[in-house]
Amino acid sequence: MQRNPQLNAHGELIHLLSIEGLPRPVLHHILDTAGTFLSVNDREVKKVPLLRGKSVFNLFFENSTRTRTTFEIAAKRLSADVINLDIARSSAAKGESLLDTIANLSAMHADMFVVRHSESGAPYLIAQHCAPHVHVVNAGDGRHAHPTQGLLDMYTIRHYKQDFTKLTVAIVGDIVHSRVARSDIHALTTLGVPEIRAVGPKTLVPGDLKEMGVRVCHDMKEGIRDADVIIMLRLQNERMSGAMLPSAAEFFKNYGLTPEKLALAKPDAIVMHPGPINRGVEIASDVADGTQSVILPQVTFGIAVRMAVMSIIAGNNA
Amino acid sequence: MSSLNLDAEALYADLLSGVRGLMQADSVLVGIWSGGAWLAERLQRDLNRPGEHGVISSALHRDDFGSRGLTAGADHTRLPFDVSGKPIVLIDDVLYTGRTIRAVINELYDFGRPASVTLAVLVDRGGRELPISAAVSAARITLPKDQRLSLAKDEAGRFSFDIKEGS
Asked: Cβ of B68 and A39 within 8 Å?
């Protein structure tokens, strides 16, 4: 049997490529460690020396502001040197292959790569070809996975709801294009959430979800009724090709989260969104800014979760 | 094996009287997680100090992070007071190489600038690798390198020592 490429022979995390296949104790260890790092924000010195002298390269082959920035803050709080490469405008544009780029950056003594790429599997390819002491974090690859977003979503849910094993979680919107949805589903399943619902129109909710133990709902009201957690996804206009939707306004009417629809969920339900939000497309402003919204705490937790992931993998050897 | 003749409860009585001598009016007790934190909790009570004792973890400043990685995240530091300007009395169960103390002092300084830092331990087992010494140590012993000595606490809160082979 082939070993999970993210784990070493002792079962310790050395890369974070996908939540799929990671055992529950590994997820709990990351979430517990993130809790420790969250308290670093309360200190006079908001920095710890775990990655001192290490170089973290942010390789974003695809645009991102929030994820790149929170990875950069997380690495700096761990005392790493952070190098941001705007790949879209550099070597790749001149025709250099991905592995040649990695070989060159490794020659500059990189210790960790944080990779976002439009091709699913690109971080795996890098992890397979880099030196044994180098660690890789997937910051989103194609439609495949966005594991740190999945983990920060789990941290947020645990923070507000404590126990995963009694929850109903509804993921709403453009699921077919969403690597966040995939990572969330794997994480929720591993952590023992009994009911996971995927809510959206037939064109945006893939058919293979039922095999992952997810309940598919094409009716929004049915989908969020009595939910404890609602994860709204961004309608990914830039990925939309062909006529999958009549219009954004039509989508909002059927699947946009309004105060009226939110009232169907449990009274203490929390509303999450990975951002950036499209107000009036998938979520009403009243809800995004409302008392049940935890969208901004998600961003804060994201830094602590990324610190946890980077410090855990940096401390484990291949 | 536990053939070593170390009565943790008797040593605690000596530690208590030693720490009493170290305390100034505004001193605060900070126990090193986990054994030192138990001791600090009991000292806080037995010395009738107001408020809560502090707990400090070496995890984020350890010098063996590169080889041992990050251990469980549950042991985080809790300092329920401002450390700036305070005389700090660090409490630990066993003083050995001094590396934990070095890490903990760094951790302490992430929260502010104490007036002073002193150290009181139940057992000093020698083997120092850094220029660190305790102001109070209830016992001094010598143990082979491959033995690990640590404090244990039973359900009634009574202390004893655990000795394990292998580091």
From this structure: no
Q: Which residues in chain B have Cβ-Cβ distances shorter than 8 Å to A305?
A: none
Least CB–CB distance from A316: residue in B69, B74, B75? B69
- Which burial class, exposed, middle or buried, applies to A312 when counting CB atoms under 10 A from its CB (0-12, 13-18, 19+)? buried
pLDDT tens digit sequence for A128-166: 999 999 999 999 999 999 999 999 999 999 999 999 999
pTM exceeding the 0.95 threshold for the entire prediction? no
A299 close to A67: Cβ distance less than 8 angstroms: no
Q: What interface predicted TM-score (ipTM) does this complex get?
A: 0.78
Q: Does A43 contact B106 at a Cβ distance shorter than 8 Å?
A: no
Phi, psi of A134 (to 5 degrees): -95, 140
Say how many C-beta atoms besides its own lie within 10 A of residue A185's C-beta. Answer: 24
Nearest CA in chain A to B84: A44
Amino acid at A294: V
CB contact under 8 A, A44 and B61: no
The two structure tokens encoding residue B49: 């100090």
Q: How far B68 CA sits from the closest chain A CA (Å)?
A: 7
What Cα–Cα distance (Å) separates residue A278 from each residue in A57, A108, A237, B48? Answer: 30, 40, 10, 58
